[in-house]
Amino acid sequence: MKIAVLGTGYVGLSTGVCLSEIGHSVICIDTDEQKIKSLRRGVSPIYEPGLENLLAQNAAAGRLQFTTSHREALNGAEIIIIAVGTPQMADGAADLSYMVQAAKDIAANLVQSAVVVIKSTVPVGTNDFIKEIMDELCNEKVTFNMVSNPEFLRQGSAVMDTMHADRIIIGSENKEAAKKVEEMYSPLNVPFILTSIRSAEMIKYASNAFLATKISFINEVANLCGVVGADVTDVAKGMGKDKRIGETFLQPGIGYGGSCFPKDVRALLHTANLNGIHFSLLKETVAINDFQQEVLVKKAIERLGDLKGKKVAMLGLAFKPETDDMREAPSIKIARSLTNLGAEVVAYDPVAIDNAKNILRDTIRYASSVNEATLDADTVFIVTEWNEFRHLDLETMINTMRQPIVFDGRNCLEEERIRVCKKIEYYPIGRPPIVIGMT
Length: 439
Ligand SMILES: NC(=O)c1ccc[n+]([C@@H]2O[C@H](COP(=O)([O-])OP(=O)(O)OC[C@H]3O[C@@H](n4cnc5c(N)ncnc54)[C@H](O)[C@@H]3O)[C@@H](O)[C@H]2O)c1
Prior knowledge:
It is a single chain. The protein contains 19 helices and 15 strands. By secondary structure, the protein is of the alpha/beta class. It folds into 3 domains: 194 residues, NAD(P)-binding Rossmann-like Domain (Rossmann fold, 3-Layer(aba) Sandwich), CATH 3.40.50.720; 89 residues, N-(1-d-carboxylethyl)-l-norvaline Dehydrogenase, domain 2 (Orthogonal Bundle), CATH 1.10.1040; 144 residues, Rossmann fold (3-Layer(aba) Sandwich). The protein has a 7-stranded mixed β-sheet. Strand 5, helix 6 and strand 6 form a beta-alpha-beta unit. The chain is elongated. The mean pLDDT is 97. The structure holds nicotinamide-adenine-dinucleotide. The site of nicotinamide-adenine-dinucleotide (NAD) has 27 residues, from helix 1 and helix 5.
């Protein structure tokens, strides 16, 4: 099947590469010339495990191409997948300007009939709105049908998630169009859920809002555990074994971030407001998350007092491990709070430093290793649970710090490893602190 994908971001590129891997002929279009140049050289503009290998293999096999020309890409495409960004506007609504431009680009260049699939996360009613724009602008000989096919991949495991998804949502009012999309995905052997377009659009927002709420819930439980002397790790384990609750998304920490949860939760709240629904549970989800992102700084002030002139080593910048994405990463808020308080911040991340520099500029310093960041530090903040940090050489780190005080925002250091240290003060989230050898 010949498929065109608009947008080579985290979703578009992963989708395009995986569809070529299952045998389709895929052409990916992006308006960003640098990205396309890089992709043509076989270099992925994003860090995503396993993606670059598959990209190179499928490009070499002639199944995967890249272009900046919509005309070239849409020529002969049976399915056109839109995977452009839908960022957040100031009032919380989803910004559909890239979506509208994509619709105009398709309408201006489509010369044959096709199925138009919206994969981007879009508010309920957007497929209808995009169809109206295209109906008005398309050549009258061209017919097309819309399919809403929201994406659920997670950055850091995008290839695995695409190849082994839990389900594929296909929302359409046209049976033929839905069947065509089923056919495209059929080699993946993933269960399909067929719905109306509006239900499909809502499934994506409701899923992300539910997961965000689960995170905020366990973070509130963690804060309570910290006060009443319970251990949230045991509590979450005990809760999660109940199949009705489930173990995933019950890890306490410094809140959710990234390019999806924050904006999608706010966009759903915006839709609810517009429609007169007072979604108070979701408002609390956001408020708890905002509070949680400040927890490490508050704990540090409680322990160290004035942070002016204190050196804080931040381990991790990306919003989660295995990605270089800094969009809405909790590290941004933490770094800004620390620098506003006069602290000197030195950060290390295995892959996100370049992207972090675009946001935090020279307000903080950047280190090229854990040891460089933690040298002479008054305290360490663990902000992203990279595997490298789970296994870091604690003894060396502690011996080179000014004071061995560690705030673990992701509970990623094992208790047994801390207990063998000669001197350490360790503050996790929602678990009792461990203090050894301090006077
Ligand atoms: N990132 C994720 O983990 C994830 C997961 C599920 C769903 N989503 C949703 O998928 C959508 C895309 O997210 P992303 O993270 O991949 O975005 P992104 O910002 O990484 O990529 C979007 C790409 O689209 C390109 N683009 C913009 N307008 C274009 C046009 N008219 N023609 C061709 N290309 C164009 C941009 O240059 C950019 O490269 C969003 O709606 C997002 O909410 C994202």
